[in-house]
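Are you able to produce any protein sequence you like plus the matching backbone structure tokens because I've never seen that pairing?
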Amino acid sequence: MIYPSIDNILTIVGSKYLLVNIGAKRAKEMSETNHYQMKESEYVSKKNIGRALEEIAKQLITPKD
């Protein structure tokens, strides 16, 4: 099972395209700056793309309309 659930995130973001776009940008930012919005021990995922999705699911990152 993938965590966090894509279906749950789509209620926050609205479209799969926007979700992929935001997640990829945040994952790249994490790789470049090594800055995380939660403690590393709080993340379930080990990879930055999963961590970016977790931040979106917890609404630490919100899309601009």
In short: The helical segments are 6-13, 16-33, 48-57. The chain has a mean pLDDT of 91. The chain is about 55% helix and 0% strand. The CA atoms of residues 27 and 33 lie 10 Å apart.
